Amino acid sequence: MEVLKADTTKVSSYVAKSKLRRVDHYSRMALLAAGRALENVSPAMVSRQHTGLIIATGFGALNSTFSFLDSYLDQGDKLAAPTWFSGSVHNAAAAYISICYGLTGPCLTVSQFDLSFASALLSAQAWLNTGRVDAVLIGAVDEWCDVSGYCIQKLNTHTGKMKGSFGEGASFFLITRETDTVPAIGFLDNIYLGRDLIVNSPDMDDIIFSPCAAHERCNPCSLENNISPDTRLRKRVRAGSPTDMGMDVWFALSGGGYTGEKTCCIKQGANQMFGSVTAIKAH
Length: 283
Known about the structure:
The protein has 283 residues and is α/β, with parallel strands linked by helices. The chain contains nine helices and eleven strands. The strands form three sheets. Strands 7-11-10-8-9 form a five-stranded mixed β-sheet, with helices on one face. Helix 8 (223-226) links the parallel strand 8 (206-210) and strand 9. The termini are far apart.
């Protein structure tokens, strides 16, 4: 089994090393991706006081969580490691981003397993439509840990016998309401979360389908029989992480010639639930 791990050494280009001393790998991935999303944004364009923050994560900071549990089991509740505990809280990464980048708008962490990113997009859309914020920094973050590998290999017998790639990462987007200004990379449209997945495939150049992270087989329901002949269906053989839909959106918008102008990114959840969003490249 191949494991793809993220390199966070460049996070010090965005956040002072003194502030990173107790920051775990999960939050470092989030800080790095968020810094890259914000680095070319002028304060005159988007006020950070009126920018909301939403992080989507399937499992949160797994390494910090299990390290804290190990310290609790080894040392007892009075001597359990406080640093690991603070890092294990799902909202820790959002707190670091808010503090380090000066975002003082509403802050939320969404954890809905495979459908976390789609759910976060719906929340961001609601904030923008109701005028609660002028912009939303939205990100997807999940990390790999040895316990994940054990579960994949031992509890999922099919994956234990078949080749597969699993990994971690973070992707962040600064989104606003639609204006006359051409966005840096594109638009997001048709955000959906539910059971009855409907894709208007004749309008799509590509469809990227990612399976549920808890299952080993990709099951794109009836898409293969209903898509237009001119639409390319790209199916992940394995899910990279519960929130790899965020990475798929980034690939659709910045993938150069690998993707067309309009791409529908679909993530399969448990119990035949689906999340989807259409990514449209800027001209």
